[in-house]
Design goal:
The chain has 3 domains: 4-128, 3-Layer(aba) Sandwich (Rossmann fold); 149-375, tm_1862 like domain (pyruvate-formate lyase- activating enzyme, Alpha-Beta Horseshoe), CATH 3.80.30.20; 381-437, Nucleic acid-binding proteins (OB fold (Dihydrolipoamide Acetyltransferase, E2P)), CATH 2.40.50. Helix content is 34%, strand content 23%. The chain has 12 helices and 21 strands. The strands form 6 sheets. It has a 6-stranded parallel sheet with strand order 2-1-3-4-5-6, with helices on both faces. Strands 17-18-19-21-20 form a 5-stranded mixed β-barrel. Strands 7-10-13 form a 3-stranded parallel sheet, sandwiched between helices. It starts with a strand and ends with a strand. Bound molecules: 5'-deoxyadenosine (5AD) and iron/sulfur cluster. Residues 50-51, 164-165, 262, 264, 302, 304, 333, 335-336, 338 line the site of 5'-deoxyadenosine.
């Protein structure tokens, strides 16, 4: 009987995709996925270090796994991802959690099969971390979570050094994949049934595949791939969003009319201290330009509350931006101090109770706009990729609109994998309900 594995993934889509890669490599080694973590022969935890509570949850999980390992000494426990790119984390694991067998980082995922073989054959513990990945390793297998949609990395790393953010330290400097490698990967995915790709990068707008292929040119090239039906991307840094990209939204029919454009704060003073390199007014102008060029474009964002030095007045600027842009949805975060980032040493940290109180007000503002925007969809007919049955109601199918809104709907059985028309009949804050029409 073949051995089995379980991967637990924390964090962003980049991590989710790395986990798909790890699953792909295990698949090639003849391991099978096991939905029951506690019965798997190998447990892999792919970590995120963007916020502090993720660190705490990770160490909590490691603590719980000690018993499992004591009962089943053959269990192999591997940890990877962004947290492993921080020396103080590795030191903590080595000293306090010695039952971990394999540690690897974000730059050397491709080494995982070798590290695993070492353990399987010689029972030697393995720690392998690369400081920074200069080269891009192409051709790694991947075991997709979804049949009809896929993540495709177009670049790795980040050069922006926003003062709160750990990513430039854990994912290294920006490096872009060659356009021909990306195009080949997507053609192969389409041959395998994929209809929708999401291009991934910390800041896709600074993609530079070669002299002539920056991000907009890449989109135009991908728009020509036969059989591909939808292109999405994330994440965009406002400072690098070009007019050429806005034009690509107009020209490229496959590019979904949705942009995730993290604003982080509405206060120009806070943005300056965050090193974001745009102002409140600059962001609002950009949004106007997008809305004028692409009516009905869905705009989503990330917002941090309680960055050091944020006053009530600064926070009011954030609420004002929410009010003016009317985001379709927003991920809201309490500022969390990250070791090794410049903001860690800022002296004017905002007290926890103030942060929480502002956070609640922000969530209320954001949610009421999301609910209202969803309500405005009632009666409309939207294009939806039928992904499969809804998780919460097995009578309904599930999918996303062009603007990335989640819809559960009634439809005939044979439409999975198709893009169909769905009439929206009900709405809530986070999703829509409808039924298939025009069949
Ligand atoms: N504290 C809170 N939120 C953070 N983010 C990144 N770093 C931090 C931090 N230290 C948020 C940003 C980013 C999203 C992925 O996570 O909003 O866009
Ligand atoms: Fe972090 Fe800023 Fe880079 Fe985004 S752009 S990954 S927030 S440093």
């Amino acid at each position: 009987m073949s051995k089995t594995f379980f991967i637990q993934t924390f964090g962003c889509q980049m991590n989710e995709h790395d986990s798909e890669r790890i699953a792909g490599m295990l698949d090639e080694m003849n391991f099978k996925e096991n939905p029951d973590r506690d019965k798997a022969d190998i447990i892999i935890i792919n970590t995120c270090s963007v916020r502090e509570n993720a660190d705490n949850r990770f160490f909590g999980t490691l603590g719980l796994l000690k018993n499992l390992k004591m009962n089943r000494p053959d269990l192999i426990l591997a940890v990877c991802g962004c947290m492993m790119q921080q020396q103080h984390i590795i030191d903590t694991i080595k000293s306090k959690y010695p039952w971990v067998d394999i540690i690897f980082g974000t730059h050397n995922i491709h080494e995982f099969p070798k590290l695993l073989s070492n353990i399987l054959n010689e029972r030697t513990k393995a720690i392998s971390i690369w400081e920074d990945g200069e080269e891009i390793v192409e051709g790694l297998p991947s075991k997709r979570k979804h049949k009809f949609k896929a993540f495709v990395n177009i670049m790795y790393g980040c050069n922006n050094f926003c003062t709160y953010c750990i990513v430039p330290y854990t994912r290294g400097r920006e490096r872009s994949r060659k356009p021909e490698d990306i195009i080949k990967e997507i053609r192969d995915l389409v041959d395998d049934g994929v209809k929708e790709v999401t291009l991934l990068g910390q800041n896709v707008n600074s993609y530079k595949g070669d002299e002539n292929t920056h991000f907009p040119e890449l989109i135009y090239a991908l728009n020509d791939i036969e059989g591909l039906e939808r292109i999405r991307f994330m994440t965009s840094h406002p400072k690098d969003l070009s007019d050429r990209l806005i034009k690509a939204f107009v020209d490229c029919d496959k590019l979904c009319k949705h942009i995730h454009l993290p604003v982080q704060s509405g206060s120009s003073k806070v943005l300056k201290r965050m090193n974001r390199k745009y102002t409140k007014e600059g962001y609002l102008e950009l949004v106007d330009k997008l809305k004028n060029a692409v009516p009905n474009i869905a705009i989503t964002t990330d917002i941090i509350v309680g960055f050091p030095g944020e006053t009530e007045e600064d926070f009011q600027d954030t609420l004002d931006v929410v009010d003016k842009v009317r985001f379709d949805s927003a991920f809201t975060f309490l500022y969390s101090t990250r070791k090794g980032t410049p903001a860690e040493n800022y002296e004017d940290q905002v007290p926890e109770d103030v942060k929480h109180e502002r956070f609640n007000r922000l969530v209320e503002a954001v949610n009421s706009i999301s609910a209202e925007k969803n309500r405005m969809m009632i009666g409309k007919i939207e294009k939806v990729l039928v992904e499969g049955l809804s998780k919460t109601n097995k009578e309904l199918y599930t999918g996303r609109t062009d603007g990335h809104k989640l819809v559960n709907f009634e439809a005939p059985d044979n439409l999975i994998g198709e893009i169909i028309d769905v009439k929206i009949t009900e709405s809530s804050t986070f999703s829509l309900i409808g039924h298939a029409v025009n069949l």
